[in-house]
Amino acid sequence: MSLLNKQVGRYQSFQGKVDDLCHRMHDNGLDQNSRRGDSDTARTKDKTKTLEHFLDETFQLQRYMVATGQKLMEIQPKIASGLVGVAEELETCASFDMNRFTDLI
């Protein structure tokens, strides 16, 4: 079960990073019209540099997502076998032992 919890943590971390990137892109105001006092060339260079930074972060998140998916594929059999073991354990604990019951009475 710890493998499953680790995987959930990875996806939650990934979700937080994507949300943070989206908020920063929106807050950066790249969609706003021109700022006063800036030349078109300076504004274009600034926007280009900012967009390159966001693109780099997006590629890093994509690599993280691929690695997380590959890790899930690797541990999926371990998680499945662990869940089967837990189910079998619950089944044996939940079974009713008639001999034990009659001994107690």
If you had to describe this structure to a student in words, what would you say it looks like?
By secondary structure, this protein is mainly alpha-helical. It has one domain. The protein is 85% helix and 0% strand. The chain is built from three helices and no strands. Helix 1 packs antiparallel against helix 2 (40-94). The longest helix has 55 residues, at 40-94. It is rod-shaped and about 95 Å long. The model has no long low-confidence stretch (mean pLDDT 80). This is CAP-Gly domain-containing linker protein 1 isoform X1. Residues 25-47 are annotated as: Disordered. It comes from Prunus yedoensis var. nudiflora.
What's the topology here?
Blueprint lengths: L1 H27 L11 H55 L3 H7 L1
Helix pairs in contact: 1-2
Protein name: CAP-Gly domain-containing linker protein 1 isoform X1
Organism: Prunus yedoensis var. nudiflora
